[in-house]
## 1
Amino acid sequence: MDISALKSIIEKEISSVSNIEQLEKTKISLLGRKGIISEHIDKIKTLDKEERKFFGRELNQLKEWTDKRFIELKRFYEDEEKKKRERATWIDITMPGKVPIVGKKHPITQTMEEITRIFLSLGFSVAKGPDIESDYYNFEALNIPNDHPARDMQDTFYIKKGVVLRTHTSPVQIRVMESQLPPVKIIAPGAVYRCDSDVSHTPMFHQVEGLMVDRHVRFSDLKGILSIFVQEMFGSNTPLRFRPSYFPFTEPSAEVDIGCVICSGKGCRVCKDTGWLEILGSGMVHPQVFRIVGYDPEEVSGFAFGMGVERVAMIRFGIDDIRQFFYNDIRFLSQF
Ligand code: DAH
């Protein structure tokens, strides 16, 4: 029996192992009940007594040595597996973190809040009315006669006969005056709807209505309040002008322009070479409107105005297409 030859066979077998699965197979072929070492142990019976003792001891030592090699190798491969797993799930905590994208208020919301802030500082309070409005509040009570062009189906979204999506915030004036006695000093911000769509019109847009009613309220009060507003909103050097106009619910009526903030009045594409930008409609509340809500036009007077929020935002941020506000394109919105 050649123990050293057997040992070199065992060593060769073990050294050809390269992973844990092979290790198990090789272990069985060497140490198993039908393995090479058991085969040799079986052969000991055929030897004489002295040799039996000698080879018995030799084979036992070889078996123990082999056992130990397998234990060591098993530990080695298990360690390797563990390291591999750790490498796969390793996180570099020294890497710079990702900066989360922080949401912002929509430019229309920002503008509406800024307009509201200025009027609150001038002693106005905020009133609200419904988006779905009756024909009465949207038209009738505002002295808009039945055949007025503003009632045309092309402009107004009718929900059913007598019910519309409000085409302006002016109906809030009526609701407020119906529910309280003078003095009144309110603004009413909100969405309005018109069947219209191009670079300067969207089917839904926003207005801020204003109404001030008391004894002796004059056109010069309107001018004073709006001058302060324009200076706060667009800068202290921004001029404004009143242009005679017509609204059924005011008399006299005026539209208000501000000096073009792009060209400072010299004339450019944005102001269509006029040097002026229109921002709102206004006037002195029509006596007929006062009568409808039960106020005495001999006792009180008032002014009202209605401002386009998108218009103000476009001027403020230099935007030339109103539809940009409603595409919800994050590249556009994140600039404000
Ligand atoms: N409601 C008008 C519109 O949408 C704007 C307006 C004009 C409102 C004059 C007023 C006002 O309160 O007095 O075109």
Note: Residues 168, 170, 209, 247, 250, 281-283, 304-306 surround 3,4-dihydroxyphenylalanine (CB under 6 Å).
## 2
Amino acid sequence: MKHIARKRFGQNFLHDASAIAAIVDAIAPKPGDALVEIGPGLGALTRPLCEQLGRVTVVEIDRDLAARLRNDPQLQVIESDVLRVDFEQLSEDMGAINGLRIVGNLPYNVSTPILFHLLGFAHRVRDQHFMLQKEVVQRMVASAGSSEFSRLSVMLQWRYAMEYVLDVGPECFDPAPRVNSAVVRMTPLTAAPDVNPKRLSELVQVAFSQRRKLMRNTLGPWLDQEGFSGTFDLQRRAQEVSVAEYVGLAGQLDTTGDLKPR
Ligand code: SAM
């Protein structure tokens, strides 16, 4: 029976054979990889991945799609919202001694919450390959100083090395989305700085709250309120500050934070 795409689950199914082959090539699955696919849908990526790996774990929220996928003995199907999946436990269950490989053509309506959810499990991950809205990928990989550099760039780049992999046009999907798509590779940094992600997130949110203004009008008052007594050049716009500087500032704030009841 033909599946009718559900908008609420961000269902745009890949059907273009060369796009599918290019994505699977970029993932480069190797036997023994502990691979998890988020949102397998009708299996466009799952099938070629399975051919190379023999076994793939998939997380699918749509009950009808999950039921179809269960017919394939090569798949371990987790019927769930991926935001509820404990990847720490999953990594244990899968015996992923070399880290999980996580892939997916993500539902665009929840792609950012999924990225933030996975951030908490980065220590269990070898790499992630995701297809997302092209604009989002551009923000994820943007360097300080560029117009796409944003909160998302900082919040992901302190933890992962990012690579823009390839573009995929709307014609490669059914139904075709209204936006262009791109694939990104995210590799957790082995020597990621020791920072409190909540602190960093608060700081970056304030810094980027009025991205066209100098930070002395936004971050300045907030730093005062937090009892910050160090030096930080606020005569800049948020997008001119490097990831390392944000991380450094968050670290200093945490030290000040110990002195201050929160
Ligand atoms: N991988 C398939 C492909 O490339 O053709 C489908 C991709 S489609 C853009 C997104 C998939 O994610 C759908 O199968 C959808 O049901 C599933 N999905 C949506 N929200 C989800 C969630 N919160 N947790 C798990 N899967 C979800």
Note: The domain at 7-188 is CATH 3.40.50.150 (Rossmann fold).
